[in-house]
Write a structure and sequence with these properties.
The complex is a heterotrimer of chains A (501), B (307) and C (269). Chain B is mainly alpha-helical and 307 residues long. Helix content of chain B is 77%, strand content 0%. The two termini of chain B are 16 Å apart. The chains are: A alpha+beta (501), B mainly alpha (307), C mainly alpha (269). The interface between A and B is large, with 54 and 62 residues.
Chain lengths: 501, 307, 269
Amino acid sequence: MRVLPIFLVLIFSACSQTPVPKNTIVIGMETDVVSLDPRYATDAVSTNVCRLVYAGLMRRDEKMELRPWLAQSVALTGAATYEIKLKTNAMFQDGRPLTSADVRFTINSILDERNGSPLRNGLGDVLSVDTPDTFTVVVKLKEPYAPFVGNLTFGIVPEGSGDLSGKPVGAGPFRVASRQRGAELALVRNDYYFEKMPALSGVIFKIVPEETVRLLELSKGNLHIVTSPIMPAMLPWLESRKNIRVERKPGTNVSYIGFNLNDQYLKNLRVRRAIAHAIDRDAIIKHFLKDTAVKTTTLIAPANEFHMEEIPVEYDPEKSKRLLDEAGYRDPGDGRPRFKLVFKTSKNPERRKMAEIFSEYLRSVGIGLDIKSYEWGTFFSDVKSGNFQLYSLTWVGMADPDALRFIFHSKYAPPKGLNRGRYENVELDKLLDDGKTETDIVKRKRLYNQAQRTLSEELPFINLWTQVNLAAVDRRVKGFVIYPDEGFDSLATAELSGLEE
Amino acid sequence: MRRYLLARLLLLLPTVFGVVTAVFFIIHLVPGDPVEIMLGETATVTEKDVLRKNMGLDRPIQEQYFSFLAGLAKGDLGVSIKTREPVLGELLSRWPATLELALAALLLASVFGVSAGVLSAARKNGVADKFSLAASLVGVAMPNFWLGPVLIIIFSIWLGWTPVSGRDGFSSLILPAVTLSAGMAALILRITRSSVLEAASEDYIRSARARGLPEWKVFAKHALSNGMIPVITVMGLQLGALLSGAVITETIFSWPGVGRLLVEAIESRDYPLVQACVLNIALCYVVANLIVDFAYAAADPRVRVER
Amino acid sequence: MTFKKIISPGFLLGVLILAATVCAAFMAETISPHDPYKQELIFGLESPTAAHPMGRDLLGRDVLSRLVHGSRISLTIGFAVVGISLIIGTVVGAASGAFGGWADMVMTRVVDMAQAFPGLLLAIAIMAVLGPGFGNLLFALCLTGWTGFARLMRGQTLALREREFVTAAISAGAGKGRLIFYHYLPNSLGPLIVEAAFAIASVILSEAGLSFLGLGVQPPEPSWGSMLNEGRPFLLVAPHLTIFPGLCLMALVLAVNLVGDRLRDVLNR
């Protein structure tokens, strides 16, 4: 009995309030970083943090334009050979110079099947990686691969590194100082950074899973930045806080409804068109999303140079009903639906709400939509195996239009690719195959314009809207800009003003 | 006494074993592929196969099971599929937070519950009694994901007395502990009250009263010590639940405990992590039950003889 | 024990609230002022007005109507789950206590295991394998709820075994089955009913907890628990979304506890 108080004192005394370091921005996050190795990071949070800790050969700026970072230049020296010249002043966070050997090692470890890196496909069919001198890398591909240069944005790791998740070593503007799993990740300035040093001393990523609590912390000044997800309904409240400004910037995430093209109802183009006409996207964007999205007809976001808006699908319930009649599904006239469909979704609250909204719109044209919400693993598994009729998800940041090949090419049904709806269109297949290898930018744009046109006529997806990225930022923060792909790269040049910090 | 404890300890093992085995098979048979969840979809079939092989996921399930048991015997709980880091480390790094919160909540609930319960019993049907009962009914009925944010708004935002969330210093423990303890305190209050009342009607209590001891002393010394058994039972059960992690409270207060870990592990089908968390939970319940049984045995020798 | 003895102010209040809830559940269509599923996005999160006394939710649906319809679901969950758990639990517990020996040991281990089993994992697993849906939700809740009754019944059985009328019955040649159904169960009704009353409250709250994890009732069906959960992110801008479902939930739990308390007080005399 006497042991207990001593025990308690020991535990409690271990925790006293830790002071926040000076000149450090604190960002509120919903989930923890999963991996700090840029070769293996798949989720958005990990990828964004890796971009602060590691440097890549190329990077994308706030307009999503490709710029050289570690690379001095990248040139196509043969039909399918790239010569990359590195900057000579780059160093890792421990002072070691970054050389072509490190680049070769990184690329090889990504290509090595045993490592199971998700980036492997993005490099095309690599035949060899050579390092003629300390600052030159030559990559030979089997055939031209247009997305190659755009995919050189991954972080470079030191030669010989094992899994870096525990001890990350990069050449980016910041380095990892400490990590408390599930609670916070602290970065500090990398004193060996080869470009202009960050004005900030550090960045802390604090994990706060509950959104209301994140916003409350922000309003109290304990957090400086909170990014999406932010409930649109909370925007007026946020904008009324004196110490916060809300930023909206166009993003690259596109929400869509996916169809199973093998389904008896959905294989009929009229039915798909009817569904598209039944949903009032303007009303949803205005009243429900509070203008945090922009209507779109294509998966390629406006920021991307290949973006092309095509045939819009306007809200027209009468047309919808006519199309359904034409398709042979008459309204029984007694309140019962013409036919029923099942909409599968995850248990994400926003998605469920959206499902309810779709359900109402379809109900008004006579289609009964049953909503089934599953936990993620099961939902995802069903979607991939084709065990669904409709679902809705968001396509995250498509950087290169070649991604369309994985989504719509008939040979890319899961598990090989992402064509979950099993869409088959031979002409589209050819367009996508040609687009992969076409290196002339003008010709390439023409191919993808045609592809987007076909997709918006055929509607294997109903593309709904492009997300507007939100950031609620403390007014003491200067120079922070949220990137179209939700990246935090601008922290490298951001500043914190104000008395306490 | 020692033989009894040893016997109970041995009975522990099949329970833990049973739970862990059941969970192993269930989580493996539930649809969802951790490799795909982890690698994302652009990975090729070969890559997925390779990763599966690396993690030993391509072996038949019985083999995986025995391999798991073998590792367990050595103290190796495996590597997380998601983060590729040892699972035991992840679990242990979050354990102190959960322990802290659990003990704080239990302490609060017990102290408040028992004293209010005794007071209620002593002043039966009086104002204090009615008030306590009303408060306990409210405590039982309030979901903690509602109480939590409300407390934050009142105490952190309006009054500024405590931090909003996170585990950082003693003051950050207060609101989560209060939120978590509300329901328990109510339960402990009622059980204390009723068992004290029951014990109070016994002869020896009446004789104590007859000897002229003040009312509260009668209760505190005699009724309480004898009426404690049901209270201890309840506390033990609650402790089991608390130690396995309070998901909701942890989420709301950004408390880095093991509760959330299990939920996340299940979602990403991170088998080794799920196994470790479940093993942890099973052990907690079993240990809590054991503590309760010890307390029983210490209090009442009759219990030790199990027919 | 006469009927008059049971009645007390608390008991009456509890019964009243329960009756009101049951009425609402049965007559939901008639008493709801609006269609609980009709959306009007433009009026999302509207504060209470004369036409919508409890305001509107995120999709512009009337909160009051959803609460009335939700009573059906919450009550069904509470009574169905507890009913089923009660049956399973008492049978197992009584058998365990009556047979003793090996059977008792095995069954107690099973109860222990079921209790130590993370209910959450079980709920997720069941919903994953069987799919979401009301029936599966009930199934998941039942699987974790029966252990309390089992323990209680076992304790009761062990205590009753020593009583005179039971030993008399045994020496008269009564078999275990007869003992269980004619002696143990009927004499345990008191504590069982009380435990059931509290379990109802607990199950209704569990459903709210499950919807926190996205596993509760499927959209667009309203249940008080899921409504409370959906209102959570809007605490700062639309508190009416949590206040009204929260009050309903509390009132129901309160009512059940009041009734249960009174029953226990009376039965224990």
